[in-house]
Amino acid sequence: MTLFRHPEDRIPVLMFLGVFALDMTVFLTARSWWVPVLWFGLGIIPKGWICSWNHHHQHLSFFKHALPNRLLEIVFGFQTGVTSQAWFLHHVLGHHKNYLDQTQDESRWKRDDGSTMGEVEYSLGTALTAYPRAFQVGRKHHPKALRTFVWMAVLQVVLLAGLFWVNPYNALFVFLLPMMASLYVTTWATYFHHVGLETANHSEASYNILHKGYNLMTGNLGYHTAHHTRHGLHWSKLPELHAQLAQEIPSNLYRQPGIPFVWRGSEEKLVLSEHEVAALSGRTVEGSGEKLAA
Which pTM value belongs to this model? Predict the structure, then answer.
């Protein structure tokens, strides 16, 4: 009997556990002040990618049984700053339900006066309100998920306190600061998913990223219209669904990926040609694939 719902999740989970093993190795063995600091800096981008996989797990859990899911969520909590069920309440049951309504969206990009937030304002605001908003979603509509969220958050805090008791300096740079940085990076990245798109049509409400490296490291999160169209679909199937939807998605709802994939023009908007859109739908059009595979 396999533990995994989908065999495609085995390698990613092994990689997450490998990163956590390295975290613990640095925490337990680092004696020089600069080693945890260096590890913190090196881990910001990879742990930002892991945030995407934590997101996928909260949409469709990797394991068939609760215990391995909860244990993995402890690892995710230390790597991403998003603890068990926090994404599920805030994002799956909140944002995905309300993202077309900026008065209700848990990741809203509009101010109360209707103007558009800037990147830093949105990122800080969403990060600082993430846990209160997750709690509110659970309290109003999902008490069972709320109980899991609260108890797992308490456990995460107890474990983090234990790490600080063992070695406060290493715990700060190997765990606490990366948790805070990853939560901020996650909210910053989500700014570019929907900002400025006020519509009642799912096909017109998300920006998409087609960069192969970006989608490899984030589990196809770039196919964001497809993800919002069927948010319970496994990450491995999102490119196929995007191909089915490509003709319905406006050609200007595409972006470049962020750093480190693109250093100039990071998150810049793209407009696909008619040939490129046709190619996404599976039609063979000469010369249409070069830009998409960048």
Answer: 0.92
